[in-house]
Amino acid sequence: MRSLLLDTGAFVALLDKSENNHRRCADFFKTFAGKVLTTEPVLTETLYLLGPHIKAEKACIHFILRGGATLVPQSGESLTRALVLMEKYKDIPMDFADATLVTLAEEAGISEIFTLDMRGFLAYRIDGKKAFTVWPK
To answer: How far apart are CA 48 and CA 50, in angstroms?
Structure first.
């Protein structure tokens, strides 16, 4: 089964109809068939960017609860790897949420990401070698 990682910008655009990339992201998401995964830091960033409006924050949490994406928690090992990645990509810079997604990509063998962060995810490499396939195009 095809798997896709969900990043903050695309998550916000999916839920916020006033966001410039909403239509593009919604159109892509409607056509994607497979499993969508994200991390707790991405959820936290998304809630922050949608807030402080409870209606938008509830929509975000309900998206996860209804199976829109599987929330993958961090382990001690993934936190350690995230720190290594943040140091490696400090010139971009890589934030913590992005580092957790790259770590998840490495752990789960996923190379596709749903993001609006082209600068970061076109530069980041899975296991230091493999490029991400970035959606939407």
So the answer is: 6
**One digit per residue, pLDDT tens: the chain, 137 residues?**
899 999 999 999 999 999 999 999 999 999 999 999 999 999 999 999 998 989 999 999 999 999 999 999 999 999 999 999 999 999 999 999 999 999 999 999 999 999 999 999 999 999 999 999 999 98
Let me know: does 136 contact 24? Beta carbons within 8 Å.
Answer: yes
- Number of domains forming the structure of the chain: 1
DSSP codes, 29-58: HHH--SEEEEEHHHHHHHHHHHTT-HHHHH
104: CATH: 3.40.50.1010
Q: In angstroms, what CA-CA distances link 67 with 18, 70, 136?
A: 23, 6, 20
**Which residue type does 79 have?**
L
* Domain hosting residue 23, numbered range: 3-135
Helix, strand, coil shares of the chain as percentages rounded to 5? 50, 15, 30
Beta strands in 57-106 (DSSP E): 70-72
pTM above 0.90, yes or no: yes
